[in-house]
């Protein structure tokens, strides 16, 4: 009988090591897929971090928030104000963004967590939309409204001037002690924060605190009857999740120093929900996979216009080629959302556990086939599906 190491600290470290190698080697293995350019890899890392943080709340406690875009926006605005006041070094911006988004998450969580289920979801959605409307109109002196907040040469940038880097010819770009956070350096900077966020997620999932969050998801009423107050645990998970979102929002501004109110829209909140469910809510690696699938679809599938489709199907006879292009055009280019919607529908119907569940089913099927081909029935217990 073999020991299952998947739930052991050693198994977690092996998986985290493999995850680290995969992330750092993205410029190599993404090349055949046409996705090895820095801007897209930065989005993989940033939105992967956003989804990992959301999974700590939704995947572990079962609280479905439709307002996490508010924390993404707070992190973005805080980062840009840090650039404007202090300088273009991203470290102070990230730290301030995490603190501010955490404080904002505590306030929203303190109110919203008084309700559960759909009422909690509606409350978080309402707070996010309120934040969006405030940023778009009422708080224009702070957010610059629909134009968006950006860094200008006339801004104080106190630390930059102290270091003799106040006067810049050309556009202002974030830099880490002289290294510009654009291109591959920008990707690896985001990747480091992604790895830190994933490591913290591993530790939370395997900690007593993580077990308590799972218990809340399983049966919160029973916990309350035993005398355990579940709200402090849910509040802590909500704040941690909000801090992840704020960090992701700040990283978006590190790679492009601009913050806009559109990051607070309900569509951004829905996107992270989609990422988490698509990859596998409650799993460690699922949200990152979901973020990668959605951002790949958004940036690659949407690039297939009619001309590109004609080039792909040029080997077909003219009449058939035109028919194939007209049908395929419904699912790519401007219609890439249709492809994503169909994929999401198939995942929800046939793989409620997301892409991770699909991988587990394939692994279990391969194991059964190997056991059946060894000349007798296997006496080892099979993993439940």
From TrEMBL:
The keyword Phosphoprotein does not apply. Keywords: Cell membrane, Membrane, Transmembrane, Transmembrane helix. It is found in: Cell membrane. GO terms for molecular function: branched-chain amino acid transmembrane transporter activity. CDD domains: TM_PBP1_LivM_like. The chain crosses the membrane at residues 16-37, 44-71, 91-111, 118-139, 186-205, 232-252, 272-291, 312-332, 338-356. The keyword Phosphoprotein does not apply. One of its GO terms (cellular component) is plasma membrane. This is Branched-chain amino acid ABC transporter permease. It comes from Roseospira navarrensis.
